[in-house]
Amino acid sequence: MHRPAITGSGVFTPDQVITNDELVAAFNAYAERFNAENADAIAAGDIAAKAPSSSDFILGASGIEQRHVMDKTGVLDPAVMHPQFRQRSDDEPSIMAEMALDAGRKALEQAGRRADEVDLVICAASNHERPYPAIAIEIQQLLGAGGFAFDMNVACSSATFGIQAAADMIRSGSVRCALVVSPEICSGHLEWRDRDCHFIFGDVCTALVLERAEDAKGAHFVVRSTRCATQFSNNIRNNNGFLRRTRPDGLKDRRDMQFMQEGRKVFKEVLPMVSAHIAAHLSDEAVEASDLRRLWLHQANKSMNDFIGKKVMGRVPEPDEQPNILQDYANTSSAGSIIAFSKYSDDLKPGDAGLICSFGAGYSVGSVLVERG
Ligand code: COA
């Protein structure tokens, strides 16, 4: 058995940014417009008026200050309220593949690897631009990688589950060098017309190179072990899918075709699940919380991260022990913990241990225990 290691990471950050104030101004203009257009139905009690959003609420409830997106013009247009992309021909790269190329090349550069040395590409993300052919195979071809490639989706835990899949294949010898990319265009499935959630998501793409620790050309992180767990829940759900046109009203502009969640229930149910998951993983590995130099947590909500950090460490972690990036990126689904890892890991010393952990829809939880090599 070989020891797998993370030898490179990269982040593609879209250059368009939406601040909370911009977001709220667009939502409130949309809400006023909706209320004016539906004044009679609202007065008759047939539909509810849309209440305004507020930047103070967003910051207080989530810790999010801004988000990067692939298209802000459509999102901020009260007559549109979603991103708008031009139609690409089948001969052009898909958007997810383009994002993945940028992040993937950065990760390969850090690892000191050429693309043709990669023999596995996993595109691990919450949504894929089309059902087939797999986006991962397109990325493999555009990069010039060898071997094989596949897409996988475990919502917010896609990246950590992808790391486990790649690490296990490296351990067994079926692959030698893997690229796990997570292009997350969360703006495409977020319901920007719902104030309860319109502030939650942003877009990004992360990439990690995994290979045998003995092959690493420079500083790296040995993957000591991984743990994945799932438990079915409808509290984060999206009903869009390939059977959409087969159902009565399936093609209508329905709320459940975008991201839906019972935020309070998610908060209450996921926190104990994640805390117990991390405690069990550390205990199996005979690692004490005090041995952990850093936690790279999923980036959904500041209060959730504060809670988990305190539970795991047994005290309030220093900001340096549990870095957050959600204030700048919002929730980027599976990419969040990997952005934190990519931006805040260079300073760890050989022997320092850390834990990457993601959690979300499914429910799903994935943790990766790493040690600086
Ligand atoms: N602006 C102003 N007020 C708002 C608002 C907005 N944008 N959105 C909601 N409110 C109101 C609500 O209507 C509610 O009003 P009420 O008390 O009169 O009913 C009040 O603010 C509190 O709403 P609530 O939804 O209970 O807020 P919260 O404190 O639970 O925060 C979340 C909302 C989504 C931030 C929080 O539930 C959360 O983080 N949950 C977990 C989310 C998560 O991580 N999801 C993972 C996705 S992968």
Chain-wise SSE layout:
Layout: E1 4-12, E2 16-19, H1 20-37, H2 39-43, H3 55-62, E3 66-69, H4 72-75, H5 95-111, E4 120-124, H6 135-143, E5 148-152, H7 158-172, E6 177-185, E7 203-212, E8 221-230, E9 236-237, E10 260-261, H8 263-284, E11 292-297, H9 302-313, H10 326-329, H11 336-343, E12 353-360, E13 364-372
Parallel strand pairs: 4-5, 4-6, 11-12
Antiparallel strand pairs: 1-7, 1-8, 2-3, 6-7, 8-13, 9-10, 12-13
Helix pairs in contact: 5-6, 8-9
Bound molecules: coenzyme A.
Account of the 3D structure:
There is one protein chain. This protein is of the alpha+beta class and 373 residues long. The protein is built from eleven helices and 13 strands. The strands form three sheets. A nine-stranded mixed sheet has the order 5-4-6-7-1-8-13-12-11, sandwiched between helices. It has a two-stranded antiparallel sheet with strand order 2-3. It has a two-stranded antiparallel ribbon with strand order 9-10. Helix 6 (135-143) links the parallel strand 4 and strand 5 (148-152). The structure holds coenzyme A.
Rg calc: 21 Å
Low-confidence region ranges:
none
Q: Which structural class do the helices and strands define?
A: alpha+beta
What about the largest sheet? 9 strands, mixed
> How many distinct beta strands?
13
Name the ligand types.
coenzyme A
Q: Report the helical percentage.
A: 25-40%
Indicate the mean pLDDT.
Answer: 97
Termini gap: 18 Å
**Which shape, going by the Cα principal axes?**
globular
Number of helices: 11
Proportion of residues in extended strands: 15-25%
Strand order of the largest sheet: 5-4-6-7-1-8-13-12-11
Order of SSEs: EEHHHEHHEHEHEEEEEHEHHHEE
